[in-house]
Amino acid sequence: MTQELKIGFLPLIDACLPILAQEHGFAEDEGVSLSFVRDMSWATVLDRLLYGHTDAAHLLAPLAIATTLGLGRPAQPLAAPFVLGLNGNAITLSNELAAKVLPADGAGADLGEPRAVGALLKAEALARKQAGNPLRFGVVHRHSSHNYMLRYWLAECGIRPDEDVEIITVAPPFSADSLMAKEIDGSCVGEPWNSIAVDRGAGQIVLATAQIWRRGVEKVLALREKRLDEIRPEVEALIRAMRKAGAHFIDPANWEVNARILARPEYCDAPHDLILRSISDRLVLRQNGPECAYPDFMFQHREAANFPWVSQAEWLYSQLVRWENMEYDSQSAQIAARVFRPNVYRSALKGTGDELPGASSKVEGSLSTPLATTAQEGSITLNQNTFFDGQSFDPDRLEAYILSQK
Hints:
By secondary structure, the chain is of the alpha/beta class. It is 39% helix and 19% strand. It has 3 domains: 3-86 and 218-271 and 299-349, D-Maltodextrin-Binding Protein, domain 2; 89-215, D-Maltodextrin-Binding Protein, domain 2 (3-Layer(aba) Sandwich), CATH 3.40.190; 356-404, no CATH class. It contains 17 helices and 18 strands. It has a 5-stranded mixed sheet with strand order 2-1-3-11-4, with helices on both faces. A 5-stranded mixed sheet has the order 8-7-9-6-10. Strand 7, helix 7 and strand 8 (166-169) form a beta-alpha-beta unit. Helix 4 crosses helix 14, helix 4 (61-69) packs across helix 15 and helix 14 runs parallel beside helix 17 (398-404). The chain is globular and about 65 Å long. The protein starts with a strand and ends with a helix. The mean pLDDT is 96.
């Protein structure tokens, strides 16, 4: 008997794995049927999940942690047994601002270099602040990796978020409109909304978030902890189906068909050619410009990309503490870490021959060259996962790391 699961999502390409698991029959093969509820804001996706209108959700990883900790609303424990992808976001600036922070001879053919762009942006930010008209950036949610990645980059370039620049919330489907209306000077958002802004002539893509943290955690499959316990066999079946969908998604032979599925009105409702460029790591950075290839812009499958590393949750907690002006609390840190559920992921895939890491935590940002790592099953080689500033995050030194960023 097939069990139906209802999944909430936003029209973003990184909602692809459950969608493609259903569309290509991988879910049916595992005994589950998926239906989808498309929303326009993360707040609504979260509300539907918390009130039981959906079984699971395509959700911002930091939002799952913040909700569990009770930030902004009464605490409700969430569980994330599967990472839907790494990175896939970009920083898009207005055409006027992009012209001031990119090399004049680049002609928009290549992404900028984070430190070089940051240095020029700092000068512009300080000048705008002095003139009483500070730069304003849009992020998709206060508790999002977009917000934390943007802030991390700005701060390491000497720009103080909330003091030198303003950061506001703009739902992904409205980010291009907000740029066009000059309500913001730049945004950090997922695809296809950067490409849509470029296509409309509203702005120019200057950085990929993968340049800030090469293997930065992004969306997760999130469930209420109680609901996960109630439907655990079905969730494990869904995990297996999404791993199969991921292998299908990254195969170049399938890019065209998958782009057309994701472009449909019930999913991303966006031009299929823009989606095709994103999933093949080929972006157009400025209107009518050439394609720019950036390998691993989206990262959905290889290197156990869907494994919920506890260290990823702990890094997100470190940024939550930093940007919410909170004090480190060991109990809260443990609660945040437990949101990511590698035990469920392992249980789902044990014996399938899929890649299963031997550990549940690792030092983030420590690899500049490939490294074969201990695996419970399969063979795993991890590649570059660096932060742009050369720092690394050791989860065993979480409090010290947080203090170093104050």
